[in-house]
Every structure is written in C-alpha cells, then in structure tokens.
Amino acid sequence: MPLSCAFVNLKPGVGKTTSAVWLAHALHEWGMPPLLVDGDPAASALRWSELAHGFPFPVIALPVGDVHRRVNDFLGDRQAVVLDAPQLEDHPRIARSIMRYAGEWIVPVTPAPIELDRMAPILGEMADVQSLRAEPARSAVLLNRTNRPDATRTGPDADAREALTERGFEVLDTHIARLDLYAQSFGNPVQAKGSAYMDFAEELIKRQDES
Known about the structure:
Elements: E1 3-7, H1 16-30, E2 34-38, H2 44-51, E3 59-61, H3 67-70, H4 72-75, E4 80-84, H5 92-101, E5 104-109, H6 113-117, H7 120-130, E6 138-146, H8 151-154, H9 156-166, E7 171-177, H10 180-183, H11 196-210
Parallel strand pairs: 1-4, 1-5, 2-3, 2-4, 5-6, 6-7
C-alpha cells in the first residue's frame, strides 16, 4: 500500500503546510514519488507550487468533504500521498475526511505551553474518526520549531515531549528545528537533502513497514 500521511491540528499556524511540502520533497528524493493533496480551502500548498514554478510531483487541490473517496482517482502508481488538512476547528468535514483516508496522522506541535494546552481536544477528534475507519490509523506528534537541534531530549523541549507522552500522544523521534530554512521557504523551490525532513521521511517509512 502507498504510504499516506496527513498533517492535522485543531488550529492554524502550526506548520502543517510547510511540513507537508517539505515531506513530499523528501519522499521524492527518497525515491518514493508522492502525490501532494492540498485539502485547505486557502490552497497554500498549491500556491507555493505555483510560485516555485512547479514541484517535481503533482499537487492537487481537494478542499471537499469527501476527500477519502477521491484521492485514489489521482494516485496512479505513486508510492506515497501527503495530505495537508485544514484546521479541524474551522473545516471539520474536510479534515475528518482526510483523516479517514490517511494511514498516518501527524500533528505538528510547537513545544510552547500554550500549544501543549491546546492538544487535549484533538484526542477526542481522533477517536471519533477512528470509529469510522475499517482499520485504525497510526498517529504521532511532530515537534516543530524546536529551540535548538539537540533540545528535544536534553533541553526545554524534553519537557514538552514528556508532557505529550503523559497525555497519551506518541511523539516522533524526529523533530524540526526552528530555522529560517523552513520558516522562509514558502514560495521557493525545496531541496530536502540534508534536512530534518529526510530523517522524518525515513521514520515514517519505517513506521509503515513495522505496522
């Protein structure tokens, strides 16, 4: 089965689109041709691809409530699907449909107290969508915009990892540092080689192989 990964969160501005675009490029560079599905009515991923004069893989806009029924019409023989979901609080029908399709739900979270405090309600949303699926999806938190490259285990971000684990979330080993490389990348071509997103892609591939 193709690897299918959706970036979801209750709130906007957590790095879903940035992570979706960078992950899609990383998978492409890994030799797993992806399809990038922009499910957000704002169409940020699609606009990014336009400004960058195209990505080396297709990007489609599907801001509709039956995404889970439509994606395979565009998949062809591609080995991966990356889905950028809109925020659940404003577009629940679209986001839940994307979650019904994806085999892996990734929740980008900045390790700040206010962001951690917002995480509890998403567990209920996940449970509701799991009940609609034939097979349960995997889910994990991606620590995003971390304080420094080695912070998640030895510094302030280690507290965020521990707090999320105590609340019932699985936290990925990979984390994304707070870098201008990512923050200023919208609209520009992306080269994932050497970035944390290559490690992220590898971790997702291993998770699928082990499931």
